[in-house]
Amino acid sequence: MSPLQVCLLFSSALFCIGLVGALSRSNAILVLLGIELMLNAANLNFIAFWRYSPAPAVGTGVLFVIFSIAVAAAEAAVGLALVIAIYRHQKNIRLQEANRLKG
Amino acid sequence: MNAALAFIAVLTLASAAVAMALRNLIHSALLLIASWFGLAAFYLWAGAEFVAFAQVLVYVGAISMVVLFAVLLTRRSRQDLAVEPASLGRALSALLVGATVAVVLARAIFATPLAVAPTATPTISVRQLGAQLMGPHAAALLVVGVILTVALLGAVVLAATDRADSKENAP
């Protein structure tokens, strides 16, 4: 097993942990954290492929991860603002009860 | 070299898995901070120092604080931090989906002929990164700036507006 495969298996495991968390929990904040874990697994893949690429001097993987971290920060801010808006509306953040579009 | 990678991987995966399984939200958030630290250690191991420090600044510094604020703002009482466990059917189906995805990904990884070229850790200096960001990727940098501005303004608007017809404002 090559080191690149080890890195890819690591990131797949992280992705699956985030997926299970996002699917199984009913708390909106935990679902968001699971999505963040999946995004981090994707970043890990970029860095792993850059580390073992034939031409690492170009730095495309690193640039991708920088932009991805910036977008993830924006996504976390908007997601948690949405959680707070849901909490104002229905006084809890259980996703099963957030089933009204207008009320 | 590989022992360090295995140590980082086990630490990161264990803290992420325990964080997703715990019932206390604060404990989950703190364990996820440990997991993000593990990812930063992986980036350092892989030679991407700038990304590692960006990960520490953005995730360990900023996103963790936003998550903790959201946890504390959305509880009703001091005892409200524990979330009820997911129902057995949901947990089992989520585990089934996760295991299926894991098996599919692992089979794809082992079936793909991956060309592994260098063994030495590559380095990329901040000067090179800056030249890339300001040269060929300047447009993307501007777009990211616009996205961050719009997203943070939107977050403030979403979290701060009171509805005009809510009960508090009614006469």
Report on the structure:
The complex is a heterodimer of chains A (103) and B (171). By secondary structure, chain A is an all-alpha fold. Chain A has a single domain (3-97), classed as Helix Hairpins (Orthogonal Bundle). Chain A has helices at 3-24, 28-51, 60-90. In chain A, α1 runs antiparallel to α2 and α2 runs antiparallel to α3. Chain A is elongated, with a radius of gyration of 17 Å. The model of chain A has no long low-confidence stretch (mean pLDDT 87). Among the domains of chain B are: 1-76, Four Helix Bundle (Hemerythrin (Met), subunit A); 124-160. The model of chain B has no long low-confidence stretch (mean pLDDT 85). Chain B has 171 residues and is mostly helical. In chain B, α1 packs antiparallel against α2 (25-46) and α2 runs antiparallel to α3. Chain B is built from six helices and no strands. At the A-B interface, α1, α2 and α3 of A face α1, α2, α3, α4 and α5 of B.
Task: List its salient traits.
heterodimer; A: 103 residues; Helix Hairpins; B: Four Helix Bundle (Hemerythrin (Met), subunit A); globular
